[in-house]
Structure formats: structure tokens, C-alpha cells
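PROTEIN DESIGN WORKSHEET
SECTION A - STRUCTURE
LENGTH: 190
C-ALPHA CELLS:
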């Protein structure tokens, strides 16, 4: 009887000692996530939208060729509301969205009502899909991404989004490109 009690207490003590270390190990990748997302430009797409996923692949291929230091890559979610969640929490800055999804996300209509208001701005437009970004994307970054993609505008069938779509504004860096302005890079940090 004492042996059974001793084994039970030993098992409980081992489990309690192991739990904090397992919890600490479980959170280790999240510390690296911030470093990863700051060193690689992620373009979000979704497995739920095959056309948008293919467009994202094509746009990222052009970015990798014309803007190699961006280390652009496609990151995929299982559904479109997950993209809204990542954009809302500022874990990602860019996403490829169909006109319908961009409009619903921006206006907070179902299935995106829990993410409203979700401020999005347009970088490029192909007539059916948008590359959207958060308003806090640095001005020069928006300019560089738009410039790199528009260099292949014919191949990618990109059009000037004009003043925007569905109430969404065009990002200030993209506007500078569409107006024909040249933006100098910001001064290097010392």
C-alpha cells in the first residue's frame, strides 16, 4: 500500500516538474516568429481560394526576382477568416484577396464581423484580386513592392487601382508610384 502511494506521489511530482518545461518549450517558436516575419516579407493566401493562391505565387515570384532583399514568400492559411485575424493582429502586413473577400473584410460583413474595423489599403490590382496591406506598412516599402510588381504589369495583368476599391484607399507608397514620383529610401539608422 505504501509502495502504491509512493509511486503515485512520485508520478505526480514528475508530472508537475515536467509541466513548466513543456510549457516553456511550447512557446519557443513564437519568440522567433517576430524575427522571422521581420526578415521575410510574407504574402498571405488561403488554401480555400485556389485562384488567389496561384496569383500569390506569381506575384511572389516577381518580387523575388525584382526585389530579392525582400525575401518574399507565400504563407498560406486554411481559410480566409484566418487571414483577417492575422491582418487584424498585425502579425502579417500583406495578403492577396479577391474583390469579394477584400470588400467583406474591409466593411466587416459576415464572415468577418469579428474583425471590424479592419483597415486595409491597396498596393496592386489585377481586376479581380488585390494585394492589400495594413496602413502601417512603411511608405517606402509600399513604393518598392508596387514598383517591383508593376515592372511586370503586362505579364501579371495588373491595372492601376485608381483611387481605390470599396472605400479602401491606395497605400501612400503605391500612390507615389502611380503618380510617377520617385521616392528616395529613408536614411539608414545609425
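SECTION B - SEQUENCE
RESIDUE ASSIGNMENT:
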Amino acid at each position: 500500500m505504501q509502495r502504491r502511494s509512493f509511486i503515485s506521489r512520485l508520478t505526480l511530482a514528475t508530472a508537475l516538474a515536467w509541466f513548466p518545461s513543456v510549457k516553456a518549450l511550447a512557446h519557443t517558436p513564437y519568440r522567433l516568429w517576430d524575427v522571422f516575419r521581420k526578415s521575410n516579407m510574407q504574402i498571405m493566401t488561403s488554401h480555400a481560394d485556389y485562384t488567389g493562391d496561384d496569383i500569390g505565387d506569381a506575384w511572389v515570384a516577381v518580387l523575388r526576382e525584382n526585389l530579392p532583399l525582400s525575401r518574399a514568400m507565400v504563407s498560406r492559411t486554411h481559410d480566409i477568416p484566418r487571414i483577417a485575424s492575422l491582418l487584424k493582429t498585425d502579425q502579417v502586413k500583406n495578403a492577396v484577396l479577391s474583390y469579394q473577400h477584400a470588400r467583406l473584410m474591409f466593411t466587416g460583413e459576415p464572415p468577418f464581423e469579428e474583425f471590424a474595423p479592419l483597415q486595409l489599403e491597396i498596393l496592386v490590382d489585377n481586376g479581380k484580386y488585390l494585394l492589400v496591406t495594413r496602413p502601417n506598412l512603411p511608405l517606402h516599402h509600399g513604393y518598392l513592392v508596387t514598383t517591383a510588381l508593376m515592372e511586370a504589369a503586362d505579364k501579371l495583368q495588373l491595372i492601376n487601382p485608381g483611387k481605390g476599391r470599396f472605400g479602401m484607399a491606395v497605400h501612400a507608397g503605391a500612390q507615389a508610384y502611380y503618380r510617377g514620383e520617385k521616392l528616395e529610401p529613408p536614411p539608414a539608422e545609425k
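SECTION C - NOTES
The helical segments are 2-39, 50-66, 80-88, 99-107, 139-150, 153-156, 172-178.
The CA atoms of residues 11 and 17 lie 10 Å apart.
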